[in-house]
Recover the amino acids of this structure.
């Protein structure tokens, strides 16, 4: 069974730790990295080649700017952006244009989005 490769890049630290606690024990998910510094995100994505990046949705509820650049260079990757203070999450991916859909901001919602990676077209 091929594992779902995930890079965790959430701020603040508590949020990152909660996401890691949610996904690290799952037998079908492999955490390929954890970063705290957004400036290293593009480099770490290029090196680790994750299926998903989990990051923080900014305060304006807009797609974080880094998403466009990451998806331009990694079109098969998906991004889950979480805003737990608003109980909101979004899954972002690229086909010919960038698309997104809502993600339930819970352990079940995150796992469901990760496992649905092949259905996001």
């Amino acid at each position: 069974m091929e594992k779902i490769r995930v890079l965790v890049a959430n701020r603040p630290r508590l949020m990152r730790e909660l996401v890691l606690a949610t996904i690290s024990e799952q037998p079908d998910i492999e955490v390929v990295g954890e970063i705290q510094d957004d400036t290293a995100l593009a480099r770490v994505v290029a090196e680790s080649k994750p299926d998903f990046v989990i990051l923080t949705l900014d305060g304006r509820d807009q797609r974080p700017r880094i998403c466009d650049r990451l998806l331009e260079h990694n079109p098969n990757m998906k991004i889950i952006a979480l805003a737990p203070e608003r109980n909101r999450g979004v899954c972002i991916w690229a086909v010919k244009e960038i698309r997104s859909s809502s993600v339930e901001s819970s352990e079940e919602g995150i796992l469901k989005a990760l496992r649905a990676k092949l259905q996001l077209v």
Remarks:
- Helices lie at 13-23, 41-48, 65-73, 107-115.
